[in-house]
Amino acid sequence: MTTSHSSQEDTIKANIYVHASLANAGEYNKSPHFRPENQEKVRNILLRLTAACREKNKAIDFGCGTGFIIHLMYDLFGEVHGVDITRDMMKQVDLSSGNVTLHESMAESTPFASDTFDFATAYSFMDHLIDYRAFLQEAYRVLKKGGVFYSDLNPNRDFIMAIAGAEKLTGGVLPITPIVHREIQGALHNGKHYEEHYGMNAELLEKAEPIKTHEKGFNFREVLEAARTIGFSDCRVEFEWFLGQAKVMHEQSHAHADTVEQYLNAVLPVSSPLFKYLRFVFVK
User: What confidence tens digit (pLDDT) does each residue in 117-126 have?
Assistant: First the structure.
């Protein structure tokens, strides 16, 4: 928890300010995860995970934003429900399928009855919370027995701490490469980046993602233990997006990137500090 640094009320206000500003400026949907290749990747993950669902009646997307995940899974379930606290984000969700319903609600305390959903998602979301454990408890509550929880694009603490170590070497014997320099800015000075490029308040940006700012991301061991303690029966973590992956993909090939990723996955957990993000899959 990060209550010593900021209150839940401050975090909520900061998130509404940041995400409404980005959505209204047309910048949010330009985020890297909206690129077609990532949408294809996430769609394939959703197909893989939903294949294991016993039923496909209802799904819920926590922190649905402008509908990134909703648009990738609305055809997989009878009903899809999106939850968010920022109206200006939800105004951009495509409701034309007729089976999507939006709810302005805190993710840690939703209006749904227990054992309602077959599938739950939280994409690029959990680091915006003060207490991810309270949220996991709510996700567990609203899932049916056998329901699947999928959370992705969670900042990896091992990676951020490695980047912080690299920043201390700036001006030292070893040069800082452009790839590492860019990650230093994104991982450690994200507020300054958004202030310079989008005119946003740097302090509020950092308050909007307290787990990344104050806790330096997620410790995968702690998250797995928290999920098991809550009651999830099957708890897995997957590592994604290695340092420099975009350079390998665009300057060499996707096949080369796949080879590097397979190798790094083969030497986990030693290679954990080289992966930016964590993907969690829990089964109730």
Answer: 999 999 999 9
